[in-house]
Amino acid sequence: MAGAAPPVLDFSPFYGNDKQALAKLVEEVRQCCLHNGFFQIVGHRVPAELQQAVFTQVKKFFDLPLESKEKISRETNSWYRGYERVGSQIFEDGTAPDLKEGLYLGEDIPKDHPYFIHKKLNSGPNLWPEDLDDVEAFKSISMQYYWTVLELARDVLSVIAQTLGLDASFFNEFTKDAVATVRCLHYPPQPKDSDETISRGIGAHTDFGAITLLMQGDVDGLQVYDKTTNEWFDVEPVKGAYVVNLGNMFMRWSNDTYVSNLHRVINKSGKERYSVPFFLSGNPDYVIECLPNCRKESEDPKYPPITVQEAVGGNYNKTYGAADEFYRKNGMIKQAPVSTAQEITVE
Ligand SMILES: O=C(O)CCC(=O)C(=O)O
Ligand SMILES: [Fe+2]
Fold first, then answer.
1. Is residue 32 part of a domain?
2. Could you report the per-residue pLDDT of 188-213, keeping only the tens digit for each?
3. Residue ranges of the Fe2OG dioxygenase domain (predicted)?
4. Residue 87 lies in a domain
5. 9 inside domain
6. Which site in 29, 143, 208, 327 is 20 to 30 Å from 346, CA atoms measured?
7. Which residues contact 59 (CB under 8 A, 6 or more apart)?
8. Pocket perturbation via mutation, ligand 1, pick of 38, 212, 245, 260 by most ligand atoms within 8 A of CB
């Protein structure tokens, strides 16, 4: 499998009665998890109309004037909901701030919910863009999407459990009352001649949670690193497909047998790029420890047990801190305008 973009797998055997077809799917997923933790799926149950409706809403949101988007700034709360401007994050050391704007959404958790009261991971009310013409449509479509993709994430984990010789329901406890994040992203086009060494839509990183289900629009830009050939491979958008990748939790669970792989976005298409990743973090109190079958009895686990809350919390902070530090060092006001961000030189 070396030296190739993540393969497109048909997920429909998960919902059928053909045991052989399911076994084939499980084996294909296993190979991908061992190789670089990336694959794409079609034949899932997220309706194409819902996917389309999400993109329509996402574009409407990003088309709002900056002042409207800023009314729901992420900086107004501590539970990772709301809008952030272009240039708010740096994922990759030595690069300029990421050329993307984003909106964090999640389960709409009220302030009297135990998760909010006890400051559980990314848990609190959503911030809704009231300046949209039809904010109710935005709310209902995005929340329907959240719950639908959460179901798909459970199904994908069930297949991954089987790749490890575990019961198909192994991750049920982990996904009970799970925390997850829908992140709407907009990458303005980068100039074709922008400096490849510092200019990023999103810098090279691995994801922090358990799995990510990414819905790409129709504009390319996502690349996955292949450590066997030392190359970046383009993940060309496949209509309706999800790009699935394992997050860092799987390195812990599998004692590094499974890979949480580097990926990045550089939008040189000349077009606006939209994407909507769904990050499954899991139940904040669940303890992640080396899975059965992932180490020999004589071997120690490489990672100590840790809760989901501990494993994921704090990671995002670092990326915002890195951007703040970049602006400070370069004597700039915090938010770089889109048009100049790629001209910044890094010492
Ligand atoms: O926008 C994309 O295609 C990828 C986004 C991503 O990797 C992330 O948000 O973690
Ligand atoms: Fe990512």
1. yes
2. 998 777 887 788 999 999 999 999 99
3. 178-282
4. yes
5. no
6. 208
7. 274
8. 212
